Amino acid sequence: MRILLFFLCCLLFQSCKTTYDLVIKNAKVFDTKQGVTLDNKTILINADTIVNVVNNNKSLKGRKVIDAKNKLITPGIIDAHIHPTHFFGDYDAAPKYLAEDSLEFLRKKFSDNYLPFGITAVMIMGQPETWLKPILNWSANPSPNYTDIYTVGGAFISKEDRKPYICHIMVDSPLAAKQKVIDYYKMGIRHIKLYWRLRSPEFAAAFKTADSLGMKVYGHIDNGIMSMDTTLIIGLRNYEHLFTIVRNVSFDETDGRNYEIWMNDFYGKNNWDSSLSFFEQVMNETRFIVEKKLVALDSLIDNLAKNNVTFSTTIHLLAEKFGLTYFSNPNNKPDSNWSKKQIQRNADNFKVFMLLVKKVNYKGIKIRIGTDCPNGGKAALSEQVLLAQYGFSISSIIQISTINGATALGMENKYGSIEKGKKADLIIYDNDPFDNYKNFLSSKTIIKDGMIHYYQ
Ligand SMILES: [Zn+2]
Question: Per CATH, the architecture of 16-75+417-456 is what?
């Protein structure tokens, strides 16, 4: 009895004494799993981890306390498709190695493109192999000052005649593909990317080896090299870029002729084949498939949905080209020679594409933010705004930005929800996106690994 009493006293004493590193009270917490907001919550944080989320209670003490005043709090945003070449240099401007004595500077330079916007974790979907050592070191040693970074290494391609692009890694046989996956695994890499230039039989060899090691595999399936149907059979479940769906609908010679007539109708005979940019071509193809090949498109979407696949978004990159985003990179602005009619055509095509994206989402295919774009976090926020403008609910946009990415990356034990045991990576919105979607762009307080960052 005495021992029991002693223990009870200890427990009581302990609970009165507990002071957390950070207490965020009066929080309106967004529950990404249920898709609902929960009022009057208190988030308890020790070091870099959420210890608990409880109802408001005056006795909870923190070394630091934030009164959230019922502002919306979500998990940090995850961008599941980025490239470091956008920040350190691409093609000829890319350094062979990331200089040893500049690594801290480079890490900050990289992170400054993401953290101030609330992007607290990113996945590199292809990078030069010579940069792997420092980047894997950043992965293994996360910091409250910087966005967390993960990598797939180089994106896999088969043997090709040209000199491979710096973010690609060439495997010239199934055996080489298998060995490269094993080498990556030994280096600590747990995700791989199969680019559309990877053919059969290397594709299946790479996939099967990675899958047997418990690695996550992402495929950009395009240009008729591998088809989505085939890669589904091989076992692929995570796909890159929503626009690739239409490019995997079967398209025969008759379709080709019909497409030509359809395009001639708008652009004039033989007046579009080489003059249209890649983005315009893709969006015209999308509209053609939606208008003329809906049965085949729906059956592909149903097959993808049945197999529980996921897709990265990459919608800002397209919309920016058509002048439909809240900011644009000078290198990706609409063509100044476009006629009014052509500008309208591109906007209409993009709308058709976004309606398709809505349908894909409605059918149960999980979408995750993956910008693949040189503008870092700015582009991720633009994707949120675009999703809202084309009819996605605020709840689903937050899920697409957080838990969906965490799950597709196999990291839902760390990221994507505000729960006991998850990393203390949070966004406190000064203005609530539920009141107006433009508030996705509003000023925020970012918590990274339990550390408070104020950004305006
Ligand atoms: Zn990419």
Answer: Roll (2.30)
* Among the listed residues 202, 206, 239, 246, the one whose alpha carbon sits nearest the alpha carbon of residue 224: 246
Distances (CA, A) of 168 to 129, 194, 208, 378: 9, 10, 20, 26
For the chain (length 456 residues), average pLDDT per consecutive 10?
61 66 98 98 98 95 97 98 97 96 97 98 98 98 98 98 96 98 98 98 98 98 97 98 97 96 92 87 97 98 98 97 93 88 96 98 98 96 98 98 98 98 98 98 97 85
> Domain spans of the chain?
16-75+417-456, 76-416
How many Å lie between the centroid of ligand 1 and the Cα of residue 372? 5
Interval between CA 270 and ligand 1 midpoint (Å): 31
What spacing in Å lies between the alpha carbon of 205 and ligand 1's midpoint? 22
What is the Å distance from ligand 1's center to 197 Cα?
A: 13
Residue 239 CA to ligand 1 center (angstroms) comes to 12
Q: What pTM was estimated for this model as a whole?
A: 0.95
Dist. CA 240 → ligand 1 center (Å) = 8
The CATH class, in words, for 76-416 is: alpha beta
Contact residues for 451 (Cβ-Cβ < 8 A; gap 6+): 144, 145
What residues does the ion ligand 1 have nearby, CB within 5 Å?
125, 372
